[in-house]
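Protein fold
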Amino acid sequence: MITELVQQIINGLTVGGIYSLIALGLTVVFGILGIAHFAHGSFAMFGGYLIFFLLQRFGLSFFTAMVLAMPVGAVLGMLIERLAYRPVREAPPINAFIIALGLTMIIEGANLLMFGADQIVIPTSYHKVINIGTLSIVELRLYVIITIVLLILAMTVFISRTNTGMAVRAVAQNRSAAILMGINVDRIPMVIFAISSALGIAAGAFVGALFAISPGVGEGLVIKGFAVLILGGLGSIPGAIIGGVVLGVSETLAAGFISSSYKDVIAFLVMICVMLVRPEGLLGRRQ
C-alpha cells in the first residue's frame, strides 16, 4: 500500500510539473500584464506538434528538438504580444479577453491545418525502467522532472539576477516608477511573452511525449493552468509551482486509488477546498 502510494506520488510529480510550467507561463503574463492569455494551451500544443515535426523530418533526439523549438516559441510569443495584444493595451480588459479567445481559435486552426486531426505521441528513446528498491520509474518521467526543475531554476535566476529580470519586476511593482527610472516598458511585455511561450513549448513537448496531443487538448490544458494559477495565488511564481504539484498529485492519486474517470473531479474538489480556507490561494497575499 505504501509503495503504491509513493509510486503514484512520483507519477503525480511529473504531471504536476507540466501543470506548473503551464501555470508559470500564465502567471508571468497575467500577474504582470493583467492579460488572461487563453491561447497559451493551444500554443503549447503547437510546441508539441513542432517537436514531433523536427523529430520526423530531421531525426533529432527529443531534448535536442525541444532546445531548438523553445527559441522559436519565444520569437512567436513576442510576435503575438506585438501584433495581437499591444494594440489593445490601453483598451478595456474585455478587448484583450476577446483577442485571447480569437488567438485560441486561430492557433487551433493552424495546428489542424499544418499537422492534421490525428492524435500523435512524440517518440523518444527513453523507455528504460529504473528500479529504486520497490519503486519503479520510467526513464522519460525522471528526465522530465529533472528538466522541469532546471527550467524553473533558470527562470528564477533570470527574474531575480539579471538586469532584464529586475526590469520585469520593476514594471510589475510600479509601471510609472519604472518609466521614471528609464526602463523601456514597451520591451518588457515582449520579454514576458517570450518566457511564457518558451515554457509553453516545453510543456507541450512533455505532454506529447508522456501522453498524446491532438486538436482540442490545449483548451483542457489551459483550464488546468488557470486552476493552478488560482490555487497557488494570482501572480505568485512559487504558488504556481506548488499549485501545479498539488493538482497533479491529487489527480494521480484519484486515478490510482479511485478511478481515472474521477481524477478531474477530485483535483478540482481539492482546489475548491483550498479556496474555502484560503480564498487568495496557497501563497497569495490578502488584499
Remarks:
- The longest strand covers residues 129-132.
- The chain is about 75% helix and 5% strand.
- The beta strands are 129-132, 135-138.
